[in-house]
Amino acid sequence: MIDKETLVDWDKRYLWHPFTQMQDWLAEEPVIIERGDGCYLIDIAGNRYIDGIASMWTNVHGHNHPELNTALKTQIDKIAHTTLLGYSNIPAIQLAQKLVELTPPGLNKVFYSDNGSTAVEVALKIAYQYWQHKKEPSRKLFLHFDNAYHGDTIGAMSVGGIDSFHTTFDSLLFKGIRVSAPEAYHSHHAVDTSHNKSAVKTRWLNAVERALSEYEGKIAGIILEPLIQGAGGMLIAPKGFLKELAALAKRKETLLIVDEVMTGLGRTGKMWACEHEDVTPDLLCTAKGLAGGYLPLAATLTTDEIYNAFLGAYRDLKTFFHGHTFTGNPLACAVALENIAIFERENLLSKLQSTIKHFRNRLQEFYTLPHVGDVRICGFAAGVELMKNSDPHTPYPLEEKVGIRVCKEALTRGAMLRPLVNTIVLMPPLQISTSELDALLDIAYTSIDVVTSDPSH
Ligand SMILES: *Cc1c(COP(=O)(O)O)cnc(C)c1O
Question: Which of 157, 288, 324 should be mutated for ligand 1, with most atoms under 8 A from CB?
Fold first, then answer.
């Protein structure tokens, strides 16, 4: 048995944590998780924390779930991995069938990879090559949005829109058409009335249409996160934006790529965010919750039209030359199948509706805190934006690390959170109970109150 001091020592000596300023990390006591129990995480000292961010937006039914564990154990007693390059395996076949059944009609083909970034890379490369097969090779550019997050690989960053993540790598990224959001989009209060929301939507769609016209015949596809931009700060798109964008893409004969990496698997209250606006994209990316938060697994789904364009004689080289070594991993696919089976067996999406209503109601209380500038909610995901001054809106300076301090406070009160700069994200596992959810929201509320009302804190 390895002792706590050694673990802490080795962590600091050998590990480089993602999206983490290691200088700060080294100065602090790390939380090292040892076990999970439903919606709780348990560290090596035995402390229990409510998982308020579903372990980086992945967990669906809770940790250490008996049925998911059984699915994994049953599969591992058969085989852990075998390749999908030139061969096939049972769980990958069954999951592909299930995903086609589960996604909007028309998405009939499944291409596997391992994470959200690769699911996006696959979508971009399929779209790009598709136009070559269609004899429109000048369609080389992707239209993408400010504040978008599609992953950290070079292609995914190229269609991203978060300057603090992406500017450093600017000269490595391929050029695309980046469309800005209207000013008012950033401040929810300013778009509070439905009239204003609709005006924002129109201005935004007009900007897209202008770009599509300016680059007529040069756009391979439009990529976006449907309904809500996650890592960009939990920013909610105006209602109907997705549907009208899809119509615009169709009219301009370009492809629509929907990145459901965060929104998929029930997070918005429906299985896919696209369903809220009856949209079938040309390509759909899914990852995070696909294997219930257990294992890395991703899929890019597409239509017969796109798939068929890649068919031809071997020597024609129309093949999609792309594939990751662990693509279609049987363990991950077996867990994903069970993940989806639980949705169906427990009628989870219909049960989730009342949880979402409760979540939404309770989040209104956060507006009573003087430094809460905005509460943005989409299904079972929320962002509570903290502001130095909420009228007029004045953001907290970066060096105050207010988001990080709130999450640290929450930890001492029994909840694990992770901020997006000054926005506190609340995204628990879908299966969280009402009392656990109340406890999580109480902790978040108190932590914000304590940190923002005490300047010395
Ligand atoms: C997290 C995320 C990704 C990247 O997924 P990884 O598995 O971290 O590579 C891509 N798109 C969206 C919308 C995401 O939220």
Answer: 288
